[in-house]
Amino acid sequence: MDDDKLVMRARDFWASTLLILVSLFFIWRTLDIPLLGGADNAVKKVEWFNSAALVPLGIFTGLLLLSISLLMRSIREGGAARAFNSVGLGWDAAEALRFTTLMLIFIVYIVALVPRVDFINASGLVITALIYGYHAGQRERMLLATATVVVAGVFALVLHFPQSEWNAHGDDWFALVLWIALTALMLWTGRGERMAWVTPMIAIGAPLLLICAMAFAFRQNVPNRSSLIFSQIEYHYYVTLRPLWRD
Amino acid sequence: MDFVLSQFLGFGGAFVALIADPWTYVYMIGSMFLGITFGALPGLTATLAVTILTGFFGNKIPLDYSLIALLGAYVGAIYGGSYPSILLNIPGTAASAATALDGHPLAKAGRGGEALGLTTTASFIGTLIGTFALLIFVGALLLISKNIASPEKALLALFGILLSGALMSEDLVIKGWIAGLIGLAMAMVGLDPLLSEPRFTFGWSYMMSGFQVVPVLMGAFAIPQIIAGMRHVKAGTLLQLSDRILPHFPTIRRYMPAIARSGVIGTGIGALPGVGEDVAGWVSYGVGKTVSKEGDKFGKGSVEGLLSSETANNACIGGALIPLLVLGIPGSPPAAALMGAFMINNVIPGPTLDPAIILRVVAILVLASFTMFLMGLFTARVFIRILRIPQTVFLPVVLILTTIGSFSVGGGINDLYLMLGVGFVAYFMNMLAFPIAPLVIGVILGGMFDEMFRRSLFLSDGDLMVFASRPGAAVLLALNAALIASQLPPVKRAFGRLRKRAA
């Protein structure tokens, strides 16, 4: 068996173990749903064949059996023996760092920035950070880009955590300053590079175009309507621009 | 014969209505451009193109127009995958992986323009073959499907998930089935369809309505692609075209039997629930290599090899829409995204679907294939320029697109949490070689399976024979059982012995 297959079987060992635990947990949770017939205070309870627990119980039992089968195969083909060391699992520290930083950026963007910070501002910062951090494949840039987004997100969370404060602008200004600083750094370090001057255009243009299309062309709800930049766009769209063709 | 004639007349009416509306061209050309771009950029897929457009157009414009946008992008993206396959030797989508085997050697030999011209024509003919099959078979099957009751529907949904798991898995079939079961389990969240009993909501009111389809699709298809693609990649060598991109009709005429064969294979594979364009491309290529007189030239720049895969992957589109429209079971991952668009418009594909929608779908596919043909011949150099854009530049924009698309469908931040959660799970599943398509098909079909399975038992008062007493149900039960049995070790060993004896 080639090395890639062995690495896969070692990973299967942990995947199947996790799946067994998840299946057992959900089988236990499914048992809370009424399954068997009978009567409660003379009121007939649900029959087994009509119970809401029937299909989930079948699914999680199936998942449990398949996971056990995968675990047995993994053990039989040498996966268990390799599962307890990093080489056997095919651990790649650089790849793990890349994934962790990306995960942090995504979580901070969705959980902290999108609900609280102006969408154009937050998305511009994230686009700049992703291109700056990952285009050249340099570890330092990746860490700096992640730190910038995380600092913006933590600031937003600390300053305006409750939903009642999501419309406040303190975190908008802070994220804007970080975005400008990161862009300036990118332009400085990438003097003469095409990517350095293309990135700010994408970072401003893409979210601006998307949010305007969603709000004014499709008339849909958009995140954080009363934020720093978008509230101004919305005001001028309805007060300054729209009357031009409405009148 | 009357039936075929009435279908053609219905199609004619739908086509005239389609081309008479000026907005058709706006949506068609825009979505076709976007679709070809998504197909041409390695790292973006046809499924992602349809998913993102579902987020944007799904419930924001009338269904008639959103179908133009989604089908235009679907056809364009499957075709667009051939550009990097031929010029970079990197498949733009999984569907065009087999195209690279012969397309790139042709381009290296200075016949890149000819190869692109041939793939454009083959994709055009392939789409028309699939669409023709859709027009003829969907009407006939709809008549039959009116007799399909709850047991057949439950068994069909299960068959779709099992088949998709078996055919889409790159490593072990068991992993495809686990992915399908995870999808089914996700569909169980929320109020159950018969008794409104809350399941696995953990006291969170958002979960009462279950997982929304669009954020799940966005998470499953977009987030893993973005994570996998955000890395420094040395740009591949883009081969320059030294010849013109023309259809080469004499070559097409010469290889017409191969094109027709590939079209039929592609349509047939597309019609299998949950099996996509990539399988169609490879199977057609494999069959072509076996039966062709120039099979030994396959992989070395064979025109027939190129036509075999490219015709089949586009013919698969029409085929994949047959089970979707007749039974409500998506025939491929992009068709699953298309089903999401139907669902958020409260249109339920299946026996109760308005036949006018089917005729409109056929008309849109025909117009899409003509648009693709013309854009492929006259604007190919624009798409070749797009190939130079690094994925670290366009993937961050895809993240923003998916975020605002997911948010706007449900209008809530919870959908974004769901998208992110599903995205991380899908990334790990990709890393562990669990296929994503069965998971998505499980999520989409889970509700139907649960409702139909329990309704069958309810109507039969708990008699399990309800799944075997009707002829259709008995056949489907046998197919499900055979599919599961085929993966059991003793059965596999027995088949292995039989094969050895036959050899």
TrEMBL record, chain A:
<feature type="transmembrane region" description="Helical">
    <location>
        <begin position="12"/>
        <end position="31"/>
    </location>
</feature>
<feature type="transmembrane region" description="Helical">
    <location>
        <begin position="142"/>
        <end position="161"/>
    </location>
</feature>
<keyword id="KW-1133">Transmembrane helix</keyword>
<feature type="transmembrane region" description="Helical">
    <location>
        <begin position="93"/>
        <end position="113"/>
    </location>
</feature>
<feature type="transmembrane region" description="Helical">
    <location>
        <begin position="119"/>
        <end position="135"/>
    </location>
</feature>
<protein>
    <recommendedName>
        <fullName>Tripartite tricarboxylate transporter TctB family protein</fullName>
    </recommendedName>
</protein>
<feature type="transmembrane region" description="Helical">
    <location>
        <begin position="197"/>
        <end position="218"/>
    </location>
</feature>
<keyword id="KW-0472">Membrane</keyword>
<feature type="transmembrane region" description="Helical">
    <location>
        <begin position="173"/>
        <end position="190"/>
    </location>
</feature>
<keyword id="KW-0812">Transmembrane</keyword>
<feature type="transmembrane region" description="Helical">
    <location>
        <begin position="51"/>
        <end position="72"/>
    </location>
</feature>
From TrEMBL, chain B:
<feature type="transmembrane region" description="Helical">
    <location>
        <begin position="321"/>
        <end position="344"/>
    </location>
</feature>
<feature type="transmembrane region" description="Helical">
    <location>
        <begin position="204"/>
        <end position="224"/>
    </location>
</feature>
<dbReference type="Pfam" id="PF01970">
    <property type="entry name" value="TctA"/>
</dbReference>
<feature type="transmembrane region" description="Helical">
    <location>
        <begin position="425"/>
        <end position="449"/>
    </location>
</feature>
<protein>
    <submittedName>
        <fullName>Tripartite tricarboxylate transporter permease</fullName>
    </submittedName>
</protein>
<feature type="domain" description="DUF112">
    <location>
        <begin position="27"/>
        <end position="441"/>
    </location>
</feature>
<feature type="transmembrane region" description="Helical">
    <location>
        <begin position="356"/>
        <end position="380"/>
    </location>
</feature>
<feature type="transmembrane region" description="Helical">
    <location>
        <begin position="156"/>
        <end position="184"/>
    </location>
</feature>
<feature type="transmembrane region" description="Helical">
    <location>
        <begin position="124"/>
        <end position="144"/>
    </location>
</feature>
<dbReference type="InterPro" id="IPR002823">
    <property type="entry name" value="DUF112_TM"/>
</dbReference>
<keyword id="KW-1133">Transmembrane helix</keyword>
<feature type="transmembrane region" description="Helical">
    <location>
        <begin position="26"/>
        <end position="53"/>
    </location>
</feature>
<feature type="transmembrane region" description="Helical">
    <location>
        <begin position="392"/>
        <end position="413"/>
    </location>
</feature>
<keyword id="KW-0472">Membrane</keyword>
<feature type="transmembrane region" description="Helical">
    <location>
        <begin position="65"/>
        <end position="83"/>
    </location>
</feature>
<keyword id="KW-0812">Transmembrane</keyword>
